[in-house]
Write a structure and sequence with these properties.
- The strands form two sheets. Strands 3-2-1-4-5-11-10 form a seven-stranded mixed beta sheet, sandwiched between helices. Strands 6-7-8-9 form a four-stranded antiparallel beta sheet.
- With 248 residues, the chain is α/β, with parallel strands linked by helices.
- The termini are far apart.
- It contains eight helices and eleven strands.
- Strand 1, helix 4 and strand 2 form a beta-alpha-beta unit.
- The N terminus is likely disordered.
Length: 248
C-alpha cells in the first residue's frame, strides 16, 4: 500500500491515539446520539451501522436504545476492545470503509467524529460513499459528523503542547494542498515517536457532490452536536444527512 495512506492504519491502531484523545466527552457524545434519535425517530429494532466505530462507545449506546447495531473499524485493536462490550444485537468486525458491507441492509449509517476524508485520492472518497449507499436500504439515511473545515483553518493553533496520561505531546498543525495536517511528536519509555493526521478540508458542496454520485440526496445539515443550524463562519461541526433514493 502507498505509504501516504498508512498514517491512519498505524495511528488509530496505536494506544497513544487513545491516550491523546481520552478527554473526549462521553456525555456530549451521548447527548449527540440522543439528538439524532429525536430527530430521526428510528423504529425500535432498526438496523444501524457505526462506520469507523473505534472502541465501540457510540455503537454500545445506540444498542442500549433498542437498535440492532454493527460497528466496523479498520483497527484490529479497536475491534478487539469493542468486542469486550458486545452483547445481544451488538456486533463488531474489522472492515475497510471503502469496501461494501452487505447490500440494502441498514436503515441508518452513522459516521462519527471526523472519520471521513483520510484518503489522498478522490477515488477513495467515492468508493467509500458508494459502499455506504450500497449498504443502506432504499430510503435509508446516512449521517456524517465532520469538522467545519473553514472554521478549523481560520482558528488553527499552529503549535500546542498537551500532557495526557503522563506523556507530553507536541502538536504542530498546518493546512497544505487541501489537507488539514497535524504532526504529533512525543517520548515514552525512552523512545521517540512521531505520528501525523491528514484530513481533507471537505466542505458542504464536496459532500453534496459525493452524495449525488452515489445515489444519495442530502436531507439536512447541522453545525453543532445539539443539531443547531450550520453557519460556515462559526459552526463547530459540519453534520450532514442524506437519504438513499428509493427504487422507482
Amino acid at each position: 500500500m502507498n505509504a501516504s495512506l498508512e498514517w491512519y492504519r498505524a495511528w488509530f491502531d496505536s494506544p497513544y491515539y487513545h491516550i491523546l484523545y481520552r478527554h473526549r466527552n462521553d456525555a456530549e457524545a451521548r447527548a449527540f446520539i440522543d439528538a439524532l434519535i429525536a430527530r430521526l425517530k428510528p423504529p425500535r429494532g432498526s438496523r444501524m451501522l457505526d462506520l469507523a466505530c473505534g472502541k465501540g462507545r457510540h455503537a454500545h449506546y445506540l444498542c442500549s436504545k433498542g437498535f440492532e447495531v454493527t460497528g466496523v473499524d479498520l483497527s484490529p485493536s479497536n475491534i478487539e476492545a469493542a468486542r469486550k462490550i458486545a452483547c445481544r444485537n451488538l456486533y463488531f468486525e474489522v472492515h475497510d470503509m471503502r469496501e461494501p458491507l452487505r447490500e440494502n441492509y441498514f436503515d441508518y449509517i452513522f459516521n462519527f467524529f471526523t472519520s471521513f476524508g483520510y484518503f489522498d485520492r478522490e477515488e477513495d472518497n467515492i468508493r467509500t460513499m458508494n459502499a455506504i449507499a450500497t449498504a443502506l436500504k432504499p430510503g435509508g439515511i446516512v449521517s456524517i459528523d465532520f469538522l467545519n473545515a473553514q472554521r478549523v483553518i481560520e482558528k488553527m493553533h499552529p503549535v500546542e503542547h498537551k500532557e495526557m496520561g503522563g506523556i507530553l505531546f507536541h502538536i504542530h498543525r498546518h493546512f497544505e494542498d487541501g489537507f488539514i495536517i497535524k504532526e504529533i511528536d512525543f517520548e515514552d519509555g525512552g523512545r521517540s515517536y512521531h505520528f501525523h493526521e491528514k484530513v481533507q478540508a471537505l466542505c458542504l458542496p464536496d459532500f453534496d457532490r459525493l452524495f449525488a454520485r452515489s445515489g444519495l440526496q442530502r436531507t439536512a445539515v447541522f453545525g453543532y452536536y445539539r443539531l443547531g443550524p450550520f453557519r460556515e463562519e462559526e459552526s463547530e461541526r459540519l453534520i450532514v444527512m442524506a437519504r438513499k433514493k428509493r427504487e422507482e
